Amino acid sequence: MSQAQAAFSPEQEDFRTYCRQWLLDNPVGPAPAGMPSGPLEITQSEHMAHLQRWQKKAWEAGLIGCDYPVEYGGQGRQHCQEIANEEMSRAGFPFLPNIVGLGMAAPTILHHASEELKRELLPPIFSGEEIWCQGFSEPGAGSDLANVQATAERKGDKWIINGHKVWTSLAHFSRWMILLARTDRSDKYKGLTYFVAPMFADGITISPLVKITGESGFNEVFFENLEIDDRYRLDEVGTGWQVAMTTLLHERGASGLRTPEVIPQDQGDGGTVDARSLIELARTAQGDGGPAAQDPIYRDRLMQLLIRERAKSAHERRAQVPALQDHPQRLALQNKLLNSELVQDSAALALDMTGSTSTLAQGDANAPDGGLWPYAYMNSFGATIAAGTSEIQRNILGERVLGLPRSK
Predict the structure, then answer these.
(1) What DSSP character marks residue 271?
(2) Within this chain, do residues 110 and 140 fall inside the same structural domain, yes or no?
(3) Can you tell me the distance from the alpha carbon of 2 to that of 90, in angstroms, rounded to the nearest whole number?
(4) What is the pLDDT of residues 230-258, one digit of tens each?
(5) What's the pTM?
(6) Could you list the active site residues?
(7) Alpha carbon distance 379, 368 (integer Å)
């Protein structure tokens, strides 16, 4: 049972009714051809513009920024964003394009920015008018985030930024970046400071990176004497690591503040990566001895995935019961770990069952399920890496939740 199915106040139930009716009365309309599978894959301006129009309309109707204060562009409600999320998802509406802005930048700004910056930056995040990206990862600082080497040198009331960020989703559309930079080399953790950086300023070069799926939502970003005002610093100098933990708690879903989420969209050509789809595939995929569903090895692997999927559903229900949340990070971190690996293992089984036809890409008339499975498998590696690799998630759960000794 989701939170939306639990007991809600009359005001919250009225809000659900309002969301449902507004979504019925305001269809998005046909999307431009060739829409990507998610916000991190947007490369064409017409796709971004279409999604931004939808996000702004939903925000103006009160479905985005629900739990944020009114003075910052929110709706001033309590525990209503999840209601709006679920109703948008139920109605089959498209994903929200400003994934970094909504899920990471907004809560970090709310907790750490000046009053002036909150009023300036938050409303256009909710409306989708200003897209954001995340400047954390570097070639030598991915899982070891504290090893960030991009520098910020103070010059009066300005900061001069130099360095190199990588895997920067949506940088090619972004107006702002949440940026972690080194201001002191004498201390690995206390030498970091957190900024919001204008992507429209001189001194920034953006270079696209092409993934194995052929998409290029990722980018490299190079800073060469980028000059930003000190007022765009979040919190105190040297507290960047603590501010970054606020961002990561929201990126990993382990915060209490509800933020607008990306509305799930089917992967590939209208298909979904779940056990039901795998069962249907097993009935039609032909091996040496007939359908894959008749192979005891495939049947066993499929049953193991069904068990994991049912356990995941039970885990998500548990996450909605406050009395069962014995640690603020455990359930959300587990959920991220379980979901990302379940999708990857499901897609891997599909590739095995479809044999040589698993090499056929999207758009090939002979590709099973329109090429869903190879696309989902290749794309799944991003999910097991982003927001902390699966190995990092297990370390956090072991050390911070279970209290186990550090591995190194």
Answers:
(1) B
(2) no
(3) 13
(4) 999 999 999 999 999 888 877 655 444 44
(5) 0.77
(6) 251
(7) 17
